Amino acid sequence: MVTIHNHGFPRIGKQRELKFALEKYWHGASTEQALQQTATDLRQQHWQLQSGLDLIPVGDFSLYDQVLDMSFMLGNIPSRVRHLQGSSLDNYFRVARGRATADETTCSCVRAGEMTKWFDTNYHYIVPEFDQATDFSLHAESLLAQIRQARSQNLDIKPVIIGPVTYLWSGKAGDGSNKLDLLDRLLDVYTDLLQALADLGVQWLQIDEPVLVTELATDWQQALKQAYERLSHGTIKILLATYFGDLQDNLTLACGLPVNGLHLDVINAKQEVDKVIAALPEKVILSLGVIDGRNIWKTNLTATLDWLEKIYTRLQDRLWLAPSCSLLHVPVDLDSEQQLDKEISAWLAFAVQKLDELTVLARALNNGRESVSDLLADNAAAIKRRQQSSLVHVAAVKKRVDEVDETMAARRSNYPQRAVIQNKRLQLPLYPTTTIGSFPQTKVIRHARSDYRKHLVSEQQYVETMQQEIARCIREQALLGLDVLVHGEPERNDMVEYFAEQLTGYVFTRYGWVQSYGSRCVKPPIIYGDISRPEAMTVDWILYAQSLTDKPVKGMLTGPVTMLNWSFVRDDQPRSATCMQLALAIRDEVDDLEQAGISIIQIDEAALREGLPLRKKQWHSYLDWAVRAFRISANGVNDETQIHTHMCYSEFNDIIQAIADMDADVITIETSRSNMELLDIFDAFQYPNQIGPGVYDIHSPNTPTVDSIVELMKKATLRIPAQRLWVNPDCGLKTRQWDEVIPALRNMVAASKKLRKSV
Ligand code: GLN
Ligand code: ZN
To answer: What does residue 221 show for φ and ψ, rounded to 5 degrees?
Structure first.
């Protein structure tokens, strides 16, 4: 018999119950008990929804973040909160978000833990903090209680924890010490934990070590050996889980670790399965992640069975099946989506449906395909309809992609020649000032948008309200004396969704929330078909803004790579192919903006870096097509049109060549938080075009001083000639208030004037 199991279930709740319970608690409007009750209820519901599995995960639920839970379970609590009063939950939230509740008096003195992305997902975890002296101790009460609760209901469960090596790997040693020096101490506590679980009668424990899909230096490989040598001494059986990629150079290592089972992400590592079977010791379980835990498409069950049956014949009871990774990364239940196009929704599977698929696969293997023939037939029909649907396949789009040639990716002239022509047209002063695009999204704006969506106001009323906002933005920018203006983006709820709604090939869910961090969720749009842009998306708004001023107003677009990386994408063609379709759609908009006389067009690529593969040796191929897509989107313009791009992060030293290859005339980037450290790279690398290193942090409500901005720009001027520098904030201003934005920009403009004088 094949065994089916799961790594983790989305914990936010079908209706985002956890989000609302958390926020209520943080605002002081509910009690810890009420919050814990919601958590208990949700766990209960989720176990129920998974009751068709042979092993249900426990320990995957979290009030904020499973990595932070691990830190607390291992007694690795930052010293800055240890002495603070309150319950351990208070301290937990202090590390998570800087404060326990709204009336927290000490909040100003607690720094929240750093947040970063969990491998290549859009989920952010709280980075464990280490130093040479870090000590660990076991605090497993919460996990043990959950296990007891589940078992009291006669559920067959399998606790899931993060492995010691991945835990160390995902943390940061503040004092620069070697994290691996802590391994021995850490393993002491893991050993205690395994013992405690064994004492409870737990048979199987899943230990996640996704580090195994990254490039590991020898000492980290060694750490894995050392860790599992020690942990194998207990009586509990260990399922070692890898996911998000294939094993490659770590395959032999992974197969040789003394564990009782190994999980492989078949969505990414199908080609390794034979090798893994050959390398695994005889009695070790092989768990295959055959259902995509990162995307929302139905599995092709027949094709999967065609492949799996042979493996099952060989492995028999040694074969387990699961999703490729935790279902944390997909929405909860497709049944909530009553308004979705019926044809398209027939192609989708969210967490609940994915587990149903798993059950069907198990039944087919255990009892023969006949036992589930109806379900298989339904699935096959849906898969076939999707493959052949004219909603998906649009010949004209495919033809256009086929016809893309390299001349479309290049500007007519190279940068130095363009710069001369653009300078003549734009007549900008030295150290020109601009902003990144959005201005405060006030209540008026949000209400107007939502009323319009609900058809409570007419289109004309809506347009008028937006125009008033645009006019206000232009007026304020003119008063401030900025050089290149923006319309302020009041009509956009989200920089991806706004465009996606106007393109073909996209659908949107109502409840398709996926946790991003803590109580924060995102609702990625779904790309289901070939993409095109039926009509202009931004031209009217930009032209209206431009009609109010003689200064240039930037056309403002989201780039193809960011559109791709922040959507659920098709699995029936490579990401690069979808990206090229997006690029052509954006290119059409760029063309229309240029035709309409707009002289500067900004194409944001906020998420370009996020798409980087986990292994560095694969970066190159991603960057090749991503940069090409950007170039196709941007480079249809004439020399006198200035292309800007924007990126919201500062670590791009390692991709600087790719950034330069994008060949935007101007790039604006985040630098202020790193005190322009980023610019060090320009000592070694001659960045050829213009650059606007963000001079203040828009995430903070504080007003930057004139001197601080001058200081930062002087640092920049040491590396980049003044003729190629711009002065701008770090990112868009939509989350700020007007009374924060005005003084900040006033100082920014003043700083730029000071700089001009000093040249
Ligand atoms: N133009 C967008 C804005 O200003 C860019 C947002 C972003 O980079 N995340 O809001
Ligand atoms: Zn940004």
So the answer is: -65, -45
The length of the chain is: 759
Beginning with the edge strand found earlier in the chain, give each strand of the sheet holding 554-558 in spatial order: 554-558, 600-604, 642-647, 666-669, 690-693
Closest CA to 662 of 302, 411, 300: 411
Indicate whether residue 437 lines ligand 1 (CB < 6 A): yes
Please choose, from the candidates 14, 141, 127, 151, the residue with its C-alpha nearest in 3D space to the C-alpha of residue 89. 141
Determine the Cα–Cα distance for residues 408 and 590; give it in Å rounded to an integer. 13
User: What are the backbone dihedrals phi and psi of residue 26, each rounded to the nearest 5 degrees, phi first?
Assistant: -60, -35
Contact status, residue 531 vs residue 585, Cβ threshold 8 Å: yes
Nearest partner of 227 among 240, 242, 217, 243, judged by Cα? 240
CA of 605 to the centre of ligand 1 (A): 9
Contacts of 384 (CB under 8 A, 6+ apart): none
Pairing mode, if any, of strands 514-517 and 520-522? Answer: antiparallel
For the whole model, what pTM was predicted?
0.96
Question: Strand (E) positions, 212-297?
Answer: 237-241, 261-265, 285-291
Consecutive 10-residue averages of pLDDT for the chain (759 residues): 98 97 95 97 97 98 98 95 86 90 63 91 96 97 97 95 98 96 98 98 98 98 98 97 98 98 98 98 97 98 98 98 98 97 98 98 98 98 98 98 97 98 98 98 96 96 98 98 98 96 98 96 97 98 98 98 98 98 98 98 96 97 98 98 91 89 96 74 88 91 94 93 96 95 98 95
Question: How far is ligand 1, taken at its centre, from the CA of residue 558, in Å?
Answer: 8
Question: 648 in ligand 1 pocket by Cβ < 6 Å?
Answer: yes
Tokens coding 174: 């503040």
Residue appearing with tokens 């002081």:
28
First vs last C-alpha separation in the chain: 78
Question: From CA 249, how far away is CA 218, in angstroms rounded?
Answer: 11
pLDDT of residue 86: 79
The helix or strand, by DSSP H or E, that contains position 124, with its residue range, turns out to be strand 124-126
DSSP code at position 23: H
247 token code pair: 């094993």
Between strands 237-241 and 666-669, the pairing is: unpaired
In 3-state terms, what secondary structure has residue 6? Answer: coil
For ligand 1, atom 1: residue with the closest CA:
437
Starting from the CA of residue 698, give the closest ligand.
Answer: 2
- Residue 665 in contact with residue 643, Cβ under 8 Å? yes
Q: What is residue 105's predicted lDDT score, i.e. its pLDDT? A: 58
Write phi, then psi, for 558 (nearest 5 degrees).
Answer: -100, 135
Query: What integer pLDDT is reported at residue 670 of this predicted model?
Result: 86
Q: Which atom of ligand 1 is nearest to the CA of 648?
A: 8
* Residue pair 68/113 in contact by the 8 Å Cβ criterion: yes
Ligand 1 nearest-atom number relative to CA 556: 1
Taking the C-alpha atoms of residue 581 and residue 397, their distance in angstroms, rounded to an integer, is 7
Q: Determine the number of helices (DSSP H) and then strands (DSSP E) in the chain.
A: 29, 21
Q: Which two tokens stand for residue 553?
A: 């107003």
Q: How many CB atoms lie within 10 A of CB 43?
A: 18
| Distance of alpha carbon 96 from alpha carbon 114, whole angstroms | 8
Residues in contact with 710: Cβ distance below 8 Å, sequence separation at least 6, in sequence order:
751, 754, 755
**In sequence order, what DSSP letters do the residues of 197-222 get, joined into one string?**
HHHTT--EEEEE-GGGGS---HHHHH
Is the CB of 669 within 6 Å of ligand 1?
no
